[in-house]
Amino acid sequence: MRYGIIFFTCLFILTGFSAPEPNDEVTIIVELDESPESFLKEVERRLPRLEVVTSYDTIFNGVAIRGTAEELEKVARMDAVKNQHPVHTYEALEVEEGPTFSTELIRNQMRHPQTGKGVKVGIIDTGIDYNHQDLKDNFKGGYDTVDFDDDPMETEEEGATIHGTHVAGVVGANGEMKGIAPDVDLYAYRALGPGGVGSSVQVIAAIEEAVKDGMDVINLSLGNDVNGPDWPTSHAVNKAIELGTVVVVAAGNSGPDGWTIGSPATSSNAITVGASALSMKAPVLKVPGEREKVLIQTMSGSVPWELAKKYPVTYAGTGEEEYGDVRGKIVLFERGGIPFSHKALKAYQKGAVAVLIYNNDEGNFQGGLDGVKLPIPVASLSNEAGEWLKEKVIQQNQWVETINVSLGDQVAPFSSRGPVTTNWEIKPDILAPGVDIYSTVPGGYQSLQGTSMAAPHVAGMAALIKEAHPDWDPAEVKQALTSTADLILTGNQPFPPTEQGAGYVDLNEALEPELLIEQSSLSFGKIEERIYRKQLPLKIKNLKSEPVTISIEKPMMESGVSWTVPMATEIDPGQTEELSVELRVSAAFLEDGIHEGFLKVQESEKVYTIPYVFVKETSSYEIVSGFELETSWQNDRVADYRFHLAEGVEELRVDLYRAGTMLTAGTLLNEKDLQPGLIEGEVNIDNLNLEGSYLAIITVKTNKKESIYPFPIYIEGSR
């Protein structure tokens, strides 16, 4: 019996909805109040022509059924049906190439004998090239939920993929390359097919199969942009952990702004992994007379940025319009209009020495050249850096010089940041190498980067910990990793907790920790009262063979904030002491925004740090995220909607505008006094006569302000 719960992949593309005719065949996921077996017997008796795609009986009770809309409408009326979910399309995360960081650098520093032997790790991804010389000995099986067979091979022909094989190599390659856990048992669950695209049915079946197959560890280099704890993806991960599986999730690649962590990385119980960039040299652009330097990021498929002289810069818009001779110049483009590779190729043909593409929205971005090989470097810039170059270089007829600076250990710019909305928790939990990671791909090796590459480092480490401590549950594995992590500093100050969590993984310490601190972080919530007071537990277990004395240092003084911490406490060998930390806030003296830092726990000469966070009156996060709209398969006059609210709103309105003309197509929804969390429902669209591309504009009013959020959708008319 195959089973699962709704799941999403990295940086998916929202795809709107279609309106099936009564005889069109569609697939739905049916959630049940009873076991699938008895329900399916009744379906077979009453509706024998329906096709059962798969069924689920562990993380939730349900089935995926394919049939005509008319037949499925009869299913929906059956007594056992609790809910129905439409099937969505998802895509795999884009990755980038670069110089190399090898997992063997970590293994060579190990002081312990563990290799992952006997531990099962499931890779839910695009499949694995299990014939690769470095993976074939460790590959033990799995399942393909795209083709529903026992062959989870990477897509090899049209729409070929490499992502899952790369992730698997980081965890458990054992050949020319050695993964973090080179003797682990590798299982592949292919949930994404050609081009890295799959449906919710496929991903549901993959996570369900992995849990049922008894995986000790699951790696999910997957995610979406919904920053909230109660999206179905996060619930799915929490359930898998409850059933005894360690689940490691990539944080996402939407940094460097805050509030960019997305589900399922928002799961409270998962080990959410951000990406670090270890000590490295990076090219920056320097302008004579200006103190500010511009950091650039070479695009995937580009040659290194190694310009040795000063060069002028010329602006060419988005590259769609004609521009003059650029021989001997760096060409600055704005993102948008035409693909990156077209911009770069055109500039190269006109004599450019290099290409810069700056974002058309706030922050940085990652991009690639789609297989186009050019002898000149191509790099991306933030929107702010692009506008600065236009003002300081192009308008003032200056030239730029390339210099290389040492960045030291860093949080990778693309790594998604917390905190999580609604419950205001710190994510990521931990950092691991995620920049320019060298690993296996079908037919060879390649360097890729992203939090997709950071997560399998930690999945491999979790396998080593499970080998060393087979009786530990998922919470203890997580505690071992977060309790022993090392803070990454910028100057002499640590990066904020919402960027690095507990810090950079320390494998040697995590394998044999002396203390386990149950709380990976302390989240005191959102300050909404004039006088705020909250006490949180702090459980510490002594794994040493002798008593230890614990003392806790108060955080640095902050206006309007006071702390109460326990006095020095002795903990006997093998015992757990439950302490508490109290925060008191006078809101009138506290500045708005995110307040975060690290609580220091001293044991003899050792210092442990616990990240903490609390929030006051900030709405820099997206109040609305994850808007989805689906025509009901039962009735094309009704549409089902779903979105997440980060906070309660007084009023919410959804208006539709035709793409291109921006002419209004009507109001879809108007609701008042909505509470935070997952919002679902249905709306009548019979009188709107909708078809084609639209922009859904969501306007929300809170007691502080009015905010607007756009979501593109496509509506396919009745056939």
Keywords:
719 residues; alpha/beta; Alpha-Beta Plaits; Rossmann fold; Glucose Oxidase, domain 1; 8-stranded mixed sheet; 16% helix; S8 family serine peptidase; cell wall; signal; Peptidase_S8_Ser-AS
Could you explain the architecture of this structure?
Residues 116-503 form the Peptidase S8/S53 domain. This is S8 family serine peptidase. Keywords: Cell wall, Hydrolase, Protease, Secreted, Serine protease, Signal. The chain is α/β, with parallel strands linked by helices. 16% of the residues lie in helices and 36% in strands. It contains twelve helices and 43 strands. The strands form ten sheets. Strands 7, 8, 9, 11, 12, 13, 22 and 23 form an eight-stranded mixed sheet that branches. It has an eight-stranded mixed sheet with strand order 15-14-21-17-18-19-20-16, with helices on both faces. The chain has a five-stranded mixed sheet with strand order 1-43-42-39-40, with no helix packed on it. Strand 42 (692-701) and strand 43 form a beta hairpin. Helix 4 (163-172) packs parallel to helix 9. The radius of gyration is 26 Å and the shape is globular. The model is unreliable at 1-22 (pLDDT under 50).
